[in-house]
TrEMBL record:
Keywords: Cell membrane, Membrane, Transmembrane, Transmembrane helix, Transport. This is MHS family MFS transporter. Signal peptide: none annotated. SUPFAM superfamilies: MFS general substrate transporter. InterPro entries: MFS (IPR011701), MFS_dom (IPR020846), MFS_trans_sf (IPR036259). The keyword Membrane applies. It comes from the Bacteria. It is found in: Cell membrane. Residues 22-430 form the Major facilitator superfamily (MFS) profile domain. It holds the Pfam family MFS_1. The lineage of its organism: Bacteria, Bacillati, Actinomycetota, Actinomycetes, Micrococcales. It is a multi-pass membrane protein. The chain crosses the membrane at residues 34-54, 60-82, 94-112, 159-181, 193-212, 247-270, 282-300, 312-331, 337-358, 370-397, 403-425.
Length: 439
């Protein structure tokens, strides 16, 4: 007989090692997603204006950033579709699909012809592939967070689900390390075949994640719902009937994700254009901050299991707002050590708190029968702000001298909305899994 891990509260049990395996599968899935998203964001800032928009002139950067945002348009649609099937047929099956779709879309981006070859068909095909990435991402984190939370013991849900978002750090680190050598290549190679290699390499990460994820079974909570005929026939309808306030709350809280795109995409362009910091240095800043976040995020998850989700999440939002101008001004200082300290403080010790806690914080607002749908739809609508943050701030003049003011104000507003919304939520860290989302 297999050993079991007891959970707090209701005594729900899971096979020994299953929470760790679920966390690892979620970590790798998020690593794939954010490897793909980060290399796209880096390319949108540093490569695509030249490759796909050479005739756009001063608007090339805005148009390139807009392609980054298009994935977030597909996400709400994908959230409804994938959320429905995730709550109907199971978390694992949907997660296998999202993993393969993300990998295929990213690989194909590396195969696209450039503007000089097919004209405006090139950015059109880029947008199409980006939409497929967005469709995949709509179900990946929601499914991974739901599955990990439902496998975890009650008193460690935040810690185990924090690995879903810690996977984003792993993916960003890997993407940056792959992209740094590309930037060192001569222009004719860099803008030719060089930028394509990171997109092709995503296939390796996908294969590793696929073979681990395929051995994972459905969470006990979902299997019990299947056995007792408590699976919703129309999860979205049930969600909007019984949890519409929580969906709105998650949408507003999810604005906090825009901090990540400010740090990982917008700041790269700002540093290069305004501060004259070379792309390699800014990518190393991303690597350094994400390496530290690999350690801080599980700690924030553990803290949230001790004192609650709300205080840790709200701290992360407030710290992000306060430290954004510090980080941006450090980019103008010319001091690389100061840049690294500011990046680590801003991202690894500030934003990382909210980033680590939101998978459990949001998922615990919903019951098992609508959790996948609620988490997917709420986050993906909120993530629209993250997707278009670079284009919005660039259009506001944020990529110009003195633009740190616009970027800082934008970040403070979205962080304020997230923090206020979190204040209205119910604290759930001491609620047993079986009772989550029940009124």
């Amino acid at each position: 007989m297999s050993q079991t891990l007891p959970s707090a509260g209701q005594g729900t049990v899971a096979p020994a090692g299953t929470p760790k395996k679920a966390a690892l599968a979620s970590f790798l899935g998020s690593a794939v997603e954010y490897y793909d998203f980060f290399i796209f964001g880096s390319a949108a800032a540093l490569i695509f204006p030249t490759v796909f928009f050479p005739d756009a002139g001063a608007n090339a950067a805005v148009m390139s950033f807009a392609t980054f945002g298009f994935a977030y348009v597909a996400r709400p649609v994908g959230a409804v579709i994938l959320g429905h099937f995730g709550d109907r047929v199971g978390r694992r099956k949907v997660l296998m699909f999202t993993l393969l779709l993300m990998g295929a879309s990213t690989f194909l981006i590396g195969c696209l012809p450039d503007f000089n070859t097919v004209g405006w068909w090139a950015p059109a095909l880029l947008v199409l592939a980006r939409l497929c990435q967005g469709l995949s991402a709509a179900g990946e984190q929601a499914g991974a967070s739901s599955m990990t939370l439902e496998h975890a013991p009650d008193n460690r849900r935040s810690f185990f689900t924090s690995w879903t978002l810690t996977g984003t750090q792993g993916g960003q680190i890997l993407a940056a390390l792959v992209f740094i050598p590309v930037l060192a290549l001569p222009d004719e190679i860099k803008y030719g075949i060089g930028w394509r290699v990171p997109f092709w390499l995503s296939a390796v990460v996908v294969l590793v994640a696929f073979f681990i994820r395929r051995t994972l079974h459905e969470p006990p909570a979902f299997e019990e719902a299947q056995k007792t005929a408590q699976i919703s026939k129309l999860p979205v309808a049930d969600l909007l009937k019984g949890h519409w306030r929580d969906v709105l709350r998650v949408i507003a809280c999810a604005f906090i994700a825009a901090v990540s795109t400010v740090f990982g995409t917008l700041a790269i362009s700002y540093a290069k254009t305004v501060a004259g910091v070379d792309g390699t240095t800014t990518l190393w800043l991303v690597v350094g901050a994400n390496l530290v976040a690999l350690g801080t995020q599980p700690l924030f998850g553990m803290l949230a299991d001790k004192i609650g989700r709300k205080p840790v999440f709200i701290y992360g939002a407030v710290a992000s707002a306060v430290l954004t101008p510090v980080f941006l001004l450090s980019l103008e200082s010319g001091s690389v050590p100061l840049m690294f300290l500011a990046a680590i403080g801003f991202f690894s010790c500030g934003y990382a708190a909210s980033n680590a806690v939101w998978p459990s914080f949001y998922a615990e607002m919903f019951s098992t029968k609508v959790r996948f749908s609620g988490l997917a739809i709420g986050t993906q609508l909120g993530f629209l702000m993250a997707g278009f943050a670079p284009a919005i701030v660039a259009a506001m003049g944020g990529i110009r001298p003195g633009g740190w003011v616009q970027i800082s104000i934008f970040t403070a507003v979205i962080c304020g909305i997230s923090a206020i919304s979190a204040l209205t939520a119910r604290e759930t860290f001491n609620v047993p899994t079986k009772q989550l989302g029940l009124k």
